[in-house]
Amino acid sequence: MSYDLIRRLLFCLPEEWAHAFVLASLDAAAVLPALLGQRPVADPVRVMGLNFPHRVGLAAGLDKNADHLRGLAALGFAFIEVGTVTPKAQPGNPSPRLFRLPAAQALINRMGFNNLGLDHLVRRVEAAQYAGILGINIGKNAATPVEQALQDYRIGLERVYPLASYIVLNISSPNTQGLRSLQAVEALRALLEPLKERQDQLATQHGRYVPLVVKVAPDLSAEEVADMADCLLRCRVDAVAATNTTISRPGLDGHERAQEKGGLSGAPLKPLALAQTRLWVEHLQGRLPLIGVGGILQGEDAAERVAAGADLVQLYTGLIYTGPRLIRTASAAIAALKQAH
């Protein structure tokens, strides 16, 4: 069965039902060659001190609770990022909160970090015994005042440190009130300095260094990017993930669902995410690696992001519209780009 037919069937279901159905089916993916497609192209690269078999990974959000690591691993990702996870379980925002825009190859979500909490995620990661590169994306609970966000991020850092290959601080989701205010330089420094100190302590305690990544919004001005880049460099962050979803609605004039509140992902995000990648690369000047996320729906999109300076790329919405074959086409396009240069 081709993915095009599978997608048509899935799109007959309400969005969250389809999401749950796909996750529930992932463990069978390894025995469904038509779904999996060809394996990714080998293209080894070392980033953040980690050895990746190729440059294409899964972004956070698909498997918030690390319930499906084995099935996701069968798809051939170079690395998998789970979460966003918060210290305590929380239901997220009220439904409906996830919207497909098929004509635009886009999604709008206002999920609000719905997850089963750190205890559940830790148990699931330990049980999965996933041997690949695992990113764990951490956030704050909605009930935690933004002024006390450090407390939640510190708890998350401490709990997932022994299990993660790298850890992502999600300070850029538009769906948790006040969260993006942590991107302001003073708030960002106040968050990062104690977390970096704790990271150093944990590295000594566990005998290994786990990189710390900051995920940023696509809605930043050039001045904000410049200020944040300087702060991240001064605070010795290990990488930047650019970008999260956008609160803008590029190219969606007249679309019946364009006014739904939440973060927009998919094809309309591509120009903005690409422009932000270039801005970040300009200001980081090769001193920090960058993970390119957002609007990657074809192999050429992935190669373009790497050509713009991204060291790795991540997929999510593109998988929904293109299917798992995107992992292969993206890895092949990036490998071809590297060979050409």
**Count of runs of 4 or more consecutive helical residues:** 12
What overall form do the CA principal axes indicate? Answer: globular
Tell me the span between the first and last alpha carbons. Answer: 37 Å
Q: What is the annotated CATH architecture?
A: Alpha-Beta Barrel
Uncertain stretches: none
Q: Output the structural class.
A: alpha/beta
Rg (CA only): 18 Å
Number of domains: 1
Biggest sheet details: 8 strands, parallel, barrel
CATH fold naming? TIM Barrel
CATH superfamily annotation: Aldolase class I
**How much of the sequence is in beta strands?**
15-25%
Strand order of the largest sheet: 3-4-7-8-9-10-12-13
- Counting DSSP E segments of at least 2 residues, the number of strands comes to 13
What does this structure look like?
Strand 12 (290-293), helix 10 and strand 13 form a beta-alpha-beta unit. This protein has an eight-stranded parallel β-barrel with strand order 3-4-7-8-9-10-12-13, surrounded by five helices. Helix 6 packs parallel to helix 7 (185-206). It has twelve helices and 13 strands. It is an alpha/beta fold.
Which features characterize this protein?
3-stranded antiparallel β-sheet, 13 strands, 8-stranded parallel beta barrel, alpha/beta, single chain, 341 residues, 12 helices, TIM Barrel
